[in-house]
Amino acid sequence: MGTKQCNKPNVAYLGPPASYSHQNTISIPRIRSKVGCKSASFSTHPRFDLISLPDAFAAVQSHSSAFAVVPFENSTYGTVVFTLDLLVDRESNYPDVLVCGELYLSVCHCLVGRSFQRRFQQPADERRSDENDRRGTDGGLEQVPSQTNDFRHVSAVYSHPQALGQCEKFLALHLPQAERRDFSSTSKAAERVAEEGPKSRAAAICSGLAAKVNGLEILVEGIQDRDDNSTRFLILKNKDSRQESQDLLSDQSPPVNETEWKTLISFTLPQQPSGTLADVLQTFKDRKLNLTGIHSRPSLEHAWHYVFLIEVQGKREAIGGGSMNDALDELGGKTKGWRWLGSWIDEAKR
């Protein structure tokens, strides 16, 4: 497939608007840097929301979008399994999709919907102070503000599975009887509550922005289990694109130090005696390449056979040479098959 470029690249995200993916594309200063063709700022680039993560991957694969922003892992609830499965790509639907960057976003969840009372009687600044006083030493929510009566009518809670998991303590303590329903995104859940009308007994877990966009009340703010709750997003591009992650995120020159980069690799192992996984990991250790993450998903080739994904500090060089390239060259003799899924700048070190 030949190289294709967009004059004003689309940036796809998991929608509808006001999702956390969408907020990443409009609120983080580095994203507003110039993209690709240096004349247009990110804030004026066409952006379009997609209803599912497979849609985002497909948009990059087909060149419908130059980039896509997808959630990868949360500091409280762990990896987004849906994204892992798309990166594993068992049916080779997205062979040209690579990771080219990452973003971090602090996530504050709200319970939103329609209250019996229009607003809590306690002033907002007092509620916020009381809530801070009730948080435990681990950042967890020991109690929530005393206005629990304002959502006792809620019989169902809608949200993305990750958001529901990140608010487990609140739900178990205050809404144990409420049915939980999964939606493709937090903003989609808010949209559904709004569509159900003023008599709906459902509430959504989403951002305050999603509540505002959908005309819903914030019943309780800051219901996540931990104050330091944050999500890491990956930025995807097509391998044929000449645009790089530094074009998307920053005007700074890319770092020279290999430890300031990350590389994602997937691989499967042959059915051999124990130790094959350790042999693969030793390949990176021998070259002093630090592993920062390891994940596994069923390969579906047969039961109890897995695809592994590892994140490694280091960068694959396009012209060859270097520790990462040497390690990748050695993988062919130790794995059944492997795939390089991209190298990008470690934003946690920027």
Short description:
By secondary structure, this protein is an alpha/beta fold.
Which keywords apply here?
350 residues, alpha/beta, six-stranded mixed β-sheet, five-stranded mixed β-sheet
Descriptive overview:
With 350 residues, the protein is of the alpha/beta class. It is 25% helix and 26% strand. The chain contains eleven helices and 15 strands. The chain has helices spanning 20-27, 53-61, 81-88, 124-133, 161-166, 168-174, 186-195, 208-213, 245-249, 276-285, 323-331, and strands at residues 11-14, 47-50, 67-74, 78-79, 97-106, 110-113, 156-159, 179-182, 202-206, 217-221, 230-238, 261-268, 291-298, 306-313, 337-345. Strands 1, 2, 3, 4, 5 and 11 form a six-stranded mixed sheet that branches. Strands 8-7-9-6-10 form a five-stranded mixed sheet. A four-stranded antiparallel sheet has the order 13-14-12-15, sandwiched between helices. A hairpin with a 3-residue loop joins strand 3 and strand 4. It starts with 10 loop residues before the first strand and ends in a 5-residue tail after the last strand. Mean pLDDT is 81; it is low at 1-7, 33-45, 118-124 and 126-149.
